[in-house]
Specification:
The chain has 168 residues and is mainly α. 65% of the residues lie in helices and 0% in strands. The radius of gyration is 18 Å and the shape is globular.
């Protein structure tokens, strides 16, 4: 039991990084990670020994995130005197590029964004992503390809021309 607990705890930094990139909101991301860890701890008996616990937890997080997206809510942000003010970068271009990247990422459909983040940010293999999200590997590969194309087009400031042709 101690070994499983240690493995569970070791996954927290990667879960937090992915959740923050996925949501773009530190508080919401931390809540999602907390909910994931809580559910993972309760369902630890359903984890198969010898399998990748990280992929299992990402699957739990994915399901929780989908549930949260479906549930209507009002977005709020708490600001008080203790809210830290972010430090400014030395060059404005870096900040603008990061802002543009974050905007472009959030403009992607959720299905594409989560796969792109799992592969690029979390360095998961296609097989691990497919297992975590419960998708066929071909779907993972095609969504990743479309996400990369859309992100590249957005960052270059051009519109993405559809490859589909209308047949009459």
């Amino acid at each position: 039991m101690q070994d499983e607990r240690d493995r569970l705890i070791a996954c927290i930094p990667r879960l937090r990084r992915y959740a923050r990139a996925l949501l773009g909101d530190r508080t919401g991301a931390d809540d999602l990670v907390q909910d994931t860890m809580e559910r993972g701890w309760k369902k630890l008996s359903s984890w198969q020994r010898g399998s990748d616990m990280r992929a299992w937890l990402f699957g739990i997080m994915h399901n929780l995130h989908i549930d949260q997206v479906r549930r209507p809510r009002i977005a709020t942000e708490v600001l008080d005197d203790d809210t830290p003010i972010p430090a400014l970068k030395a060059t404005q271009d870096d900040g603008l590029e990061l802002r543009d990247l974050a905007t472009a990422l959030h403009a992607l459909p959720v299905e594409q964004r989560e796969i792109l983040l799992l592969v690029a940010l979390e360095e998961m293999t296609y097989d691990e992503v497919a297992a975590a999200l419960g998708l066929p590997i071909g779907t993972v590969m095609s969504r990743l390809s479309r996400a990369r194309q859309k992100l590249r087009a957005q960052m270059e400031g051009r519109s993405l021309v559809s490859q589909l042709k209308v047949v009459k």
